[in-house]
Amino acid sequence: MPALIQTPETTHRVHFQDCDMLGHLNNARYLDYFLNAREDHTTAHYALNLGELAREQRAAWVITKHHLSYLKPARQGVLVRILSQLIHFDNSNLVLEMQMRNEAGTHLLALLWSEMTYVSVPAGARLDHSEAMMELLDQVDVEEVGYDPDGFDERVKQVRQELKRQREA
Q1: Residues 6 or more apart from 99 whose CB is under 8 A from it?
Q2: pLDDT score at 1
Q3: Helices H / strands E in the chain, number of each
Q4: Are 75 and 24 in contact (CB under 8 A)?
């Protein structure tokens, strides 16, 4: 069985309706772009339809916290590259990192950490992931990214430095 892609990526065009008066992607719309891209990634690469999963298992991940750093504007009409990866999980929680880069992937525009908890629907009580889900999460977890709940700013700095070194090489 081939290894699963740990950091899938897609490109998206920044639409006029999503921008502010300066022609920059509206801050609130970054979350939509990130979460829509992650949904596309899980469907395409892990055969996970999150809506179907919620209906079948009467459980879903709910977002408990976002950390979002806006670094450079995503301008109207440009293509942006969005990468997503799982950087931490345990029996009922996970943390996703999502990056928005320019089309070439050489400059970081924004970085998001989304912390989520798996809960029963509709009660909202915390649930443990199934054994099969834990196995999938283990396969797609990016262990090279060290997760520290207080290390978001350091991670932003690290990614920016990595991209700078790649541009200079």
Answers
A1: 82, 83, 84, 108, 110, 111, 112, 159
A2: 54
A3: 4, 5
A4: yes
Round to whole Å and give the CA distance between 93 and 44.
Answer: 22
Q: Tell me the whole-structure pTM to 2 decimals.
A: 0.94
Helix 50-57, helix 27-46: angle, nearest 10: 70
What string of DSSP letters covers 103-148? TTS-SEEEEEEEEEEEEETTT--B-PPPHHHHHHHHHHB-TTS---
| Total number of domains in the chain | 1
In a domain, 3, yes or no: no
Residue 20 structural domain: 9-168
Mean pLDDT across the chain, nearest whole number? 96
CATH number of 75's domain: 3.10.129.10
The reply to whether 149 falls in a domain is: yes
What amino acid is encoded at 39 in this protein? E
